[in-house]
Structures are given as C-alpha cells and as structure tokens.
Design brief:
The protein has 270 residues and is mainly alpha-helical. The chain is 63% helix and 0% strand. The protein has 18 helices and no strands. Helix 7 packs antiparallel against helix 8, helix 8 runs parallel beside helix 10 and helix 9 runs antiparallel to helix 10.
C-alpha cells in the first residue's frame, strides 16, 4: 500500500473524548501504527490526545516518518517534533518532502535556513514543500525564489503557490497573477484559489480575461474567486454566465449559474 499525503479533512483534529476512553492500550498502539500506511487515521489518533504521544514516537522510531505520523505529531504538538523533522532532512533516503512540509505547519523558525537551502533541491517535490513552508513561515526574503519554484510546479505540486498566498505581500500577489496562465491546470487552479485567499485584486484583470476561455473546472474556481474579490466590473460577465451555464463542474456541487449568482449577490451587497 502506498503512503500518501493526507488531505486537510483527514488531518483535522477531533474533540471526541469517547474515542480515548473506548480503546485499550493495545488498540491505541495498533491505531497509531496504522498511520504509517493509512494517513486517513490521523483524525482518530489526534482525538486520543497525549495518550497517543508515546506510541507515536515508538512508531516513528521503528518505521520511520510518514505523512500520517508526521501530521499527527505536529497536530499533537509533541515537543520532540521539531527536532525529529529537522533531523529527517539529513537522512539519506529520508522523508524529506514530509519534513519540509510539516516544518512550516509546526511554525519552526529554526528551519528557515534549512528550507531555503532546499529551494534548489534536485527533488522537485522537496523544493515545492520547502517553498510552501517558507511562505507559511512568512519568509519574505525568499519571495522571488518561492515564485521561481511555483513557476516550475506541475502535476499537483502546488505547495509553493500556497506559500505565496500565505505571504500575501504586494509582490506575492503579483507572482500569483503571473501563475494564472501557467501551462499546468493544477497550478492554475491553485493560483486561482490563492488569488482569492490573499485577495489579490492586482490579479483581477487577468482572472476575468482567462474566465472567457476557461473550461468548466477552471470557471467554477474563478466564479468562487470573484465572489471574494467583489469587483463590480465583473458584473456583465457574471450576468452572462448566470443566464447561460446551468450545469455543474463537480457532481453534487452548485451549477456555474448558481456560483455566478452568488458572486453577483456578493458584489451588490458590498
């Protein structure tokens, strides 16, 4: 079974105290050990609180770091976490991508020089996660390098794009605008979302221009961004979409017309 990066929903904490009381010590150890191959168990492990701490450190010591064990360690705020992640960056064959990602989440200012050194790493996934973490840590000195890594992103490696959103400076917003016509769709979609998150109004003209030729998935994301940016000059475009696109980009999601109407309401309600 292949280890994979947990989604935000998988990694979210839980306050369900009943979980802690219901499991025996052996069951806790098995649940924590399962994180190595099944990061979807992160939520349940976090619900155990400090009861999971020792089994988690034992699992990492025995099996090495994984997306699941690293995320649980960070969410539980184990004091050993920062040191373990920093040491992982030096391990031959170690989970450097995991460590680079979680050092940003843990808020490790000690990691900034180490993460900067990874921006030119031969492993593009490691460089991408390092760039994302530097953005999360507010490293404005590295902004041009984060932008360079973001431009090189492809195939769902988009942490650097999120890093620019975390920085949220005028230059970061300019760099996000430049990514809106990137050749890789996953990067374009991430850039659209980041433009909305950082309220990058500088990107609005380009966002509206690409909306005219966007496919359904991109248009869905753009309409959501326009609801946040609330620029009245988008109204003619939105009215046209509301009148003509009564279909969905995602199964079970709102229609494009519904998203356009939401954006119209947001603009008119400013």
């Amino acid at each position: 079974m292949t280890d994979h990066k947990p989604s935000e929903s998988e990694a979210a904490g839980s306050s369900v105290g009943a979980v802690q009381a219901a499991l025996s010590d052996d069951e806790v150890r098995r649940l924590v050990a399962s994180l190595t191959l099944d990061p979807s168990a992160v939520k349940a492990v976090i619900a155990l609180g400090q009861r999971a701490a020792e089994p988690l450190l034992v699992t990492i010591g025995r099996d090495g770091l994984s997306w699941g064990t690293a995320r649980a360690m960070v969410e539980l705020r184990l004091p050993e976490g920062e040191g373990l992640l920093l040491r992982e960056l030096d391990k031959p064959g170690g989970q450097r991508e995991v460590a680079a990602a979680e050092l940003g989440r843990i808020g490790s200012s000690l990691a900034i020089p180490r993460l900067r050194a990874l921006l030119g790493d031969a492993d593009a996934a490691v460089a991408d996660e390092a760039a994302g973490s530097l953005g999360r840590l507010g490293d404005t000195e590295s902004i041009e390098e984060i932008g360079r890594v973001a431009r090189a992103c492809e195939f769902d490696m988009v942490a650097a794009v999120s890093g620019l959103a975390w920085l949220g400076t005028p230059r970061a917003r300019e760099l996000l605008a430049e990514l809106l016509d990137h050749s890789d769709m996953s990067v374009r979609l991430a850039a659209i979302d980041a433009v909305a998150q950082s309220r990058a109004t500088v990107a609005f003209p380009k966002l509206l221009a690409i909306a005219e030729k966007a496919d359904e998935l991109e248009l869905d994301q753009i309409l959501r961004a326009l609801s946040v940016l609330t620029d009245a000059s988008a109204l003619p475009f939105l009215v046209r979409i509301a009148a003509s696109r009564n279909y969905r980009a995602h199964d079970g999601g709102p229609t494009l017309a519904e998203l356009a109407n939401r954006a119209i309401e947001a603009i008119r309600g400013k």
